[in-house]
Every structure is written in structure tokens, then in C-alpha cells.
Amino acid sequence: MAVDQSSFVVLDGHHRVEAARAIGLRRIPAIILDYSSEKIVVTPHSISKEDVIRAALEGRKFPPKTTKHMISLEGHLFHISRIEPDVRLDIRALR
Prior knowledge:
19% of the residues lie in helices and 24% in strands. The chain is built from two helices and six strands, in the order E-E-H-E-E-H-E-E. The strands form two sheets. A three-stranded mixed beta sheet has the order 2-1-3, with no helix packed on it. A three-stranded antiparallel beta sheet has the order 4-5-6, with no helix packed on it. The chain is globular and about 40 Å long. The model has no long low-confidence stretch (mean pLDDT 94). InterPro entries: ParB/Sulfiredoxin_sf.
């Protein structure tokens, strides 16, 4: 799961959040990102980062797969999940 460091808006991993809630987890491993970084890009370009944050803070959800969050690494764009580490924890630690 990827989360903006300023607003704590979930950028990637919404389905994981819903699954975690459904099984009663109180904690969810996440990577905290500086969404204002120029290295992070939202597509399509018709939706801005500000649109994403504003919609989330107002409780408005975009339909699934409306946006993709990409990160520029060494001149190439990759889905943000590329930098999310594998997390292997005993699920009991998250309750």
C-alpha cells in the first residue's frame, strides 16, 4: 500500500485496505511517499494529483482503475507498486 506523507491518502492498495478491514486488522503495512515529488506521476494526465487528494479528502471515490500512479526511475516510468517492498509479517502482529 502506498500513502501520501502529507494527507495520508491511500494512493495504491485500496483493495488491500478493504480486505484488511474485512478481517479485522488494525494495522496495514504501507510505504509513505512524498506525492508532491516530480518523480511521481498520475495518469491519465487529465486528472491531477490535486484532484486525487481533494477527491479522497472529500470522500469521493474515483471508479476502480481510473488513475495509475507511476514513478520515474532512471528515466523510465514504472507503476508505484514497483517500489513497494514485500512484507512478510505474522498476521497476528497486525490485529
